[in-house]
Design a protein that fits this description.
alpha+beta, Phosphorylase Kinase, domain 1, 3 domains, five-stranded antiparallel β-sheet, 61% helix, 9% strand, globular, binds adenosine-5'-triphosphate, binds 2-acetamido-2-deoxy-beta-D-glucopyranose, ABC1 atypical kinase-like domain-containing protein, signal, Kinase-like_dom_sf
Length: 536
């Protein structure tokens, strides 16, 4: 990976200007008397941010000076500085907490930053020292206009969890309903103003120094996300919407929100028992099959993506619980509905088509779709990104690449530069980045559950087809069971295809010929159904 630097040393100047501006902004944001403490705290945090960034910039300049950009020495030093800087930033985020932790996590989820950053910052835990119970109590009583003792039979003062913007308590309502109470920390809006302002100023100066990175765009996205997350009414709305999508799915549980006890800063919902979705010990103890859990998880998210186009923004294991229902049965509990992405309808359909093409190994279709997604020649990387294959690949999905393919891919990637990746990422529609991130988080959970890749591929394949069906349904076709049966049959065939391809590859016998025959077979089947759709 490479960086470009402007050759002249304007960085120190820029940064001191940034520092001055940030401190002024911090002071200006805090005119009212009651916010003096907050402002003081803001200044401490802003100064810490500025000095860290100044150090990082100086480190890059100093360590890389006089080295030819394509020399090995440069690459080696660069990687060292990346790592050192990432560690500095990690410390900064931990010290400043709040939005800095969120920002660090946000950065670590981006693909265009060097891997030293993603790997270092990804260990940022969204954990905070809980607030004093008195402060939390004040927020609840102010928001709900009633004393805690009037609302609750019991209220656990010790929080279950404390994250960077809110903490969650357990309690029991007067009607004996067990609830989770999510309470936003006091003074957050003002903190956010100050923090975002500092980050804006810093990112402006950084993007002058590292022109390859689009920090400003990233910051804009970050800010938008944060202001949504600060409104719990929004969260209640989201959770209600997903709940209607999955009301018939017994394996999925969305905690019921008590709307009359919910305000922008306080959210009260049904309490759900369970353990993190990657807790294998719990599953073993309860006799729950990790394969079934992985399957349910993938089906849940595939349906959100392909069928509803409404996608949970942060599927990390802490937000998905496995809840034992006895005898090895279980529910998946989906938590934290603060951020959802509503996919553009055209994007959703194209994305369904893309998966259909990926499954069918239809490289021409993939390249066509690349045009639609506006990524042009980069479309050939889609199979690598999603299925771990090259576009020329003839072998089965869900099977590791052959040595020959790996070498071929390596050759291709060798000539790929950071600028290429950045422009590839920039050319992707924003919806696509969200999907990539979601896919990454899901893959990592599936990996921890020790389940094969085909679980994910099958769920995507099945729901990509369903997603395409939905379009026909809304046009008035296929409202009845015939469509269900048709989807089920197509799915069964896809499943057969994937499984037999895997088998064939394992036998490694006359592979191309047979795979091609199978491919034709499934194409024919799909074609047949396509015709039937209009003649049913
Ligand atoms: N309805 C619920 N039932 C049981 N536990 C809950 C419930 N809601 C939240 N929790 C607990 O509180 C934790 C944090 O909840 P949530 O993810 O909604 O908060 P958050 O502030 O958005 O945290 P993060 O940003 O880390 O996801 C969860 O991991 C879970 O342990
Ligand atoms: C939540 O939904 C209600 C209607 O159900 C709507 O009036 C309100 O504007 C929504 N709030 C937000 C923040 O989206
Ligand atoms: C199902 O719908 C098709 C057309 O959409 C119709 O021809 C058929 O009669 C319907 N079948 C039933 C059982 O309703
Ligand atoms: C199709 O499969 C689903 C489960 O995958 C099942 O619930 C449904 O009843 C099936 N529909 C028909 C018509 O067979």
């Amino acid at each position: 990976m490479r960086f470009k630097f402007p050759s002249k040393g304007r960085a120190p100047l820029l940064l001191s200007a940034a520092a001055a501006a940030a401190l002024t902004a911090t002071a200006a944001a805090s005119t009212s008397a009651e916010s003096v403490t907050l402002a003081a705290d803001g200044i401490v945090r802003s100064s810490r941010a500025i000095s860290t960034i100044a150090f990082v910039v100086a480190d890059y300049k100093y360590s890389l000076r006089g080295l030819a950009r394509d020399s090995e020495d440069y690459q080696f030093k660069l990687s060292e500085v990346h790592l050192r800087s990432a560690k500095k930033l990690l410390k900064l985020c931990e010290a400043n907490g709040g939005f800095y932790v969120k920002a660090g996590q946000f950065v670590s989820s981006l693909r265009q930053v060097p891997k030293e950053y993603t790997s270092t910052l990804s260990c940022l835990q969204d954990k905070a020292t809980p607030y004093n119970f008195e402060d939390i109590k004040k927020v609840i009583e102010k928001n709900l206009g009633r004393d805690l003792s009037i609302l609750f039979l019991a209220f656990d003062e010790r929080p279950i969890a404390a994250a960077s913007i809110a903490q969650v308590h357990h309690g029991v309502l007067k009607n004996k309903q067990e609830v989770a109470i999510k309470v936003q920390y006091p003074g957050l809006e003002q903190r956010m103003k100050i923090d975002i302002m500092t980050m804006a100023i810093l990112s402006k100066s950084i993007s002058k120094i590292f022109p390859d990175f689009r920090f400003e765009r990233v910051l804009y996205q970050f800010q938008r996300t944060m202001s949504l997350e600060l409104d719990f009414i929004q969260e209640a709305n989201n959770s209600q919407r997903v709940a209607t999508y999955f009301r018939k799915n017994n394996a999925v549980k969305i905690p019921l929100v008590f709307r009359d006890l919910t305000t922008p800063q306080v959210l009260i919902m049904e309490f759900c028992h369970g353990q993190k979705v990657d807790d294998l010990d719990y599953m073993r103890e309860m006799g729950i099959s990790p394969v079934k859990v992985a399957n349910t998880l993938m089906e849940l998210f595939a349906e959100m993506i392909f069928v509803h186009g409404f996608v949970h923004g942060d599927p990390h294991p802490g937000n998905i619980l496995v809840s034992s229902q006895g005898n090895g049965r279980f529910n998946l509990v989906l938590l934290d509905h603060g951020i959802y992405r509503e996919l553009d309808e055209k994007f959703r359909l194209d994305y369904c088509q893309l998966w259909k093409a990926l499954i069918m190994l239809d490289s021409r279709k993939i390249l066509d779709l690349g045009e639609k997604f506006g990524v042009g020649k980069y479309a050939k990387y889609f199979p690598v990104i999603f299925t771990g294959r090259t576009i020329e690949s003839k072998s089965a999905l869900g099977v590791q690449m052959t040595k020959e393919e790996r070498n071929h891919l390596k050759d291709e990637l060798r000539y790929l530069k950071l600028e290429d990746i950045t422009s590839f990422m920039d050319s992707l529609p924003p919806d696509f980045l969200v999907i990539l991130r979601t896919d990454g988080l899901l893959r990592s959970i599936i990996g921890k559950l020790g389940v094969g890749r085909h679980v994910r591929l099958l769920a995507y394949a099945k729901h990509a087809l369903r997603g395409l069906e939905k379009q026909d349904e809304s046009k008035g076709f296929l409202k009845n069971t015939s469509s269900q049966i048709r989807i089920n049959i197509t799915y069964l065939h896809l499943r057969l295809l994937l499984e037999s391809m895997t088998l064939i590859l394992q036998l490694n016998n006359m592979r191309h010929a047979v795979v091609n025959k199978l491919k034709d077979l499934v194409r024919g089947i799909l074609h047949l159904f396509h015709i039937n759709m209009f003649t049913f």
